[in-house]
């Protein structure tokens, strides 16, 4: 009997020890689970903080890239302006230099004048191999009617963004920007447009949009061409057009004293002066610096002229034919003398309303963007090659 009691006591002690071991192991497992949970929480928090840090770094890098690009553009603009100031100072020195202490040889002066004249008459060197000329108006599309009787509309002729820009009226400080031609077509008035406010007012109808920049004409005491960046909404450059005594370039649109144009070769200026009052003049401009590269006096009269445009270095002037529904290209001037009035085809416009207040050529689409008595019209052009004379 005593042996049985002793045996039961031993079993009881063993059971108690076993239970204690199990309790200890359970406590250890719970502690390990708590630590694992804590590690998971810390790992999740660290991963979230790393993602936030990465996003902040990416945002800061993008901001730095934008600031770098802005700084580069600013430096380029400063460099261009410095170059222009230097050229203008050189020009002023040549025009207003100190009186010489000795008599200047008249023959030497005549030689210098002759040299300048020959430089102005020098052959124009094309930037592209474009040799197209208009054959006829292939098609016409009346998009809609919006705005006043006179105005100008165009796409950006240098990029494929598809944006459309509207200058409503003959003067103002706001440009209406549409995302697409379709937006303009379905817009109730200008409801789908974005207003671009410019720091100085535009005047006339001779403006263009080229490579994300609006080139517009500002008329005060002098004629100034202003270059406005449509992306950062700021003026990047401006230049006074170096010609005095301007007169309206088109007899039927006296509000326009200078008409800017873009073709495959770049930026052009169509203008007129009192020195050559009866006829239209043409100048090739550098779209980056706004410098004048070359100038020509044409034989195209201003009288009854509505508008003009340039294609592959050829100026086409459109005149009112005194017929209620027709206008036509009646004078051409080619800077390389490859096309003459006698060789140019008669190009008639199927015009229906008043007369064109503006015609803007898009070299990428070979379309003319026309404004006619408040109607926005597209003309599809049929082209052919110029013939060497």
UniProtKB/TrEMBL annotation:
Subcellular location: Secreted
Classification via InterPro entries: Olfac-like_dom, Olfactomedin-like_domain
Domain (Olfactomedin-like): residue spans on this chain: 129-385
Keyword Coiled coil in annotation: yes
Main localization of the protein described in the UniProt heading: secreted
Source organism superkingdom: Eukaryota
Pfam family, one: OLF
Any one annotated GO CC term: extracellular space
Disulfide bonds: 130-312
Single GO biological process annotation from the record: signal transduction
Keywords per UniProt: Coiled coil, Developmental protein, Disulfide bond, Glycoprotein, Secreted, Signal
Protein family (similarity comment): Belongs to the OLFML3 family.
Protein's name in the database: Olfactomedin-like 3b
Species assigned in the record: Fundulus heteroclitus
Lineage: Eukaryota, Metazoa, Chordata, Craniata, Vertebrata
């Amino acid at each position: 009997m005593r042996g049985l009691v002793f045996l039961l006591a031993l079993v009881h002690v063993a059971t108690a020890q076993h239970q204690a071991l199990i309790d200890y192991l359970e406590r250890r497992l719970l502690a390990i689970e708590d630590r694992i949970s804590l590690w998971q929480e810390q790992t999740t928090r660290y991963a979230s903080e790393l993602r936030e840090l990465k996003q902040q770094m990416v945002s800061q890098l993008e901001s730095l890239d934008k600031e770098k690009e802005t700084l580069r553009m600013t430096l380029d603009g400063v460099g261009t302006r410095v170059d222009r100031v230097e050229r203008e100072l050189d020009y002023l020195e040549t025009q207003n230099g100190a009186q010489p202490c000795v008599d200047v040889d008249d023959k030497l002066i005549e030689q210098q004048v002759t040299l300048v004249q020959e430089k102005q008459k020098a052959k124009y060197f094309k930037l592209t191999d474009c040799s197209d000329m208009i054959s006829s108006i292939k098609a016409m599309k009346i998009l809609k009617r919006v705005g006043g009787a006179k105005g100008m509309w165009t796409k950006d002729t240098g990029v494929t963004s598809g944006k459309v820009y509207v200058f409503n009226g003959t003067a103002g400080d706001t440009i209406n920007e549409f995302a697409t031609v379709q937006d303009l077509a379905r817009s109730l008035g200008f409801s789908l447009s974005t207003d671009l406010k410019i720091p100085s007012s535009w005047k006339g109808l001779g403006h263009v949009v080229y490579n994300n920049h609006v080139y517009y004409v500002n008329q005060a005491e002098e004629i100034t061409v202003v270059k406005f960046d449509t992306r950062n909404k700021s003026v990047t450059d401006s230049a006074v057009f170096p010609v005095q005594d301007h007169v309206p370039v088109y007899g039927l649109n006296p509000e326009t004293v200078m008409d800017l144009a873009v073709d495959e070769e770049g930026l052009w200026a169509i203008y007129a002066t009192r020195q050559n009052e009866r006829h239209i003049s043409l100048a090739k401009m550098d779209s980056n610096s706004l410098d004048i590269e070359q100038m020509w006096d044409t034989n195209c009269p201003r009288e009854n002229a509505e508008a003009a445009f340039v294609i592959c270095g050829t100026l086409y002037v459109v005149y009112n034919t005194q017929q209620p529904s027709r206008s036509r290209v009646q004078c051409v001037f080619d800077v390389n003398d490859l096309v003459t009035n006698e060789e140019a085809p008669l190009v008639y416009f199927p015009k229906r309303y008043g007369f064109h207040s503006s015609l803007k050529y898009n070299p990428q689409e070979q379309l003319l963007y026309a404004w006619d008595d408040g109607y926005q019209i597209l003309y599809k052009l049929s082209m052919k090659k110029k013939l060497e004379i």
